[in-house]
Structure formats: C-alpha cells, structure tokens
Design brief:
Shape: globular
Strand content: 25-35%
Number of strands: 9
Distance between the termini: 62 Å
Low-confidence stretches: none
Largest sheet: 5 strands, mixed
Number of helices: 5
Structural class: alpha/beta
Helix content: 10-25%
Radius of gyration: 17 Å
C-alpha cells in the first residue's frame, strides 16, 4: 500500500518538515525543508511544511498520515511540533503517529550506538541502540553520567563530541528517520505524549497574597 506522509520534528534546534512516500518496503523522500534555529520553531515550522509540500508537488489533502517527533526535547519546541501535527491530523482526518525523536536519529544505524541531543543545563538527552532498536533510555543526564557500552555516537555534534567514541553521520531527526521509526503503520496510533523527561524551565508566578 502506498502512503504519502508528512513528517515533522521540533525536538532539537532543527525545525524539520518533509513529505515521504511509502510504497511497501520502499521509502522515498519527495521533499524536505530544515531550518536549524533553536528559537524559530514557531516561526519556521509552517513555512517549512508548506515549502516541502510545494517542492514535492503534493496537495495537503493527498496526505495519508502524519508522523511527529515527540522528544525528548524542550517544552516549547515539542508543543509547537506536536500541536501542529495534531491539527493537520484532525483537519485531514488522517492518523498521527508519534515517535521518539532519538529513535529517528538512530534509524539505519548498526551495532551499539549512543544517540545524544542537547538537554541544556550541561546535560544531554540520550538513548542507546542495537542495530537501530532502542535498548536503553530515553533519559536525561550529565554526559559523565550516561552509561557506557556503545561503540559509536550520533546526534547533536557539540554533545556527541563529549564522548570518546567514533562519530556517525546522523545529527538531527530527518524525514526518512521519522517515518522509519514508526513501528506499525496499520495499527491505530497511540495518543501523542510528549517526552519532556523533566519539568519545564518556565514556572507560574506565585499568586499574590
């Protein structure tokens, strides 16, 4: 069965939108637009979606599904991506599949691989994979507290550099990786759940006495 999928991720500084065609075992990225700017999730996501659809020459009403990275990531970034994905799914009446954004980076890797992204506060979000399948995490820790055992590292370049391991090419979740992280396209997707892993930095002000 052939599917046209809109892939979205805002869990990292990369604001990613892509259009992917699935045809059996074949995955074809028709178009992808990525803006690397940790402060531009809200401003860039919709233009990137519209641009990717235009480059792919796919009308929005032809989409069969949406896939979105659910983190781990910062509160604001995840909220933008997941709310947008849910809105497209609701408007088009198509399923929305949520995936772990670290899983999307790990798709296609072989051996024991550590994937890390920026968690700020001198910490990293991490998960460990064996042949692309997650075996530990996701979690958030200082780099020195991340369990060992991996043979290579992928993910955010400045944070991957904290580990004395060979570096792999994947840096941010890609459209192909997001689609590849979906376990079962024929199953009804679970509700979207953001992987914050810790409380947001912003806190409500105390009520006046």
């Amino acid at each position: 069965m052939s599917r046209l999928v809109l892939a979205i991720d805002t869990a990292t500084p990369a604001v990613t939108a892509g259009v992917v065609r699935l045809d059996g075992e074949v995955t074809e990225v028709l178009a992808e637009q990525v803006t690397v700017d940790a402060r531009a999730h809200a401003e860039q996501l919709t233009p990137n979606i519209v641009g990717a659809l235009g480059d792919a020459e796919v009308a929005v009403d032809r989409l069969d599904a949406v896939v979105v990275g659910c983190g781990p990531g910062p509160f604001t970034g995840l909220r933008v991506g997941m709310a947008t994905a849910a809105a497209y799914g609701h408007a088009l009446g198509v399923p929305v599949h949520g995936v772990c954004s670290l899983d999307a980076i790990a798709v296609g890797t072989t051996g024991e691989v550590l994937v890390v992204t920026d968690a700020r506060r001198r910490e990293v979000y991490w998960a460990r994979y064996r042949d692309g399948v997650r075996i530990d995490g996701p979690a958030v820790n200082a780099a020195t507290d991340v369990p060992g055992g991996a043979d290579a590292v992928a993910g955010s370049p400045e944070h991957a550099a904290l580990f004395d391991l060979p570096r792999l090419a994947p840096v941010y979740p890609s459209a192909a990786g997001l689609v590849g992280a979906v376990a079962d396209w024929d199953a009804d997707p679970d509700p979207l759940v953001p992987l914050y892993l810790r409380r947001p930095d912003a806190k409500p002000q105390a009520a006046p006495r």
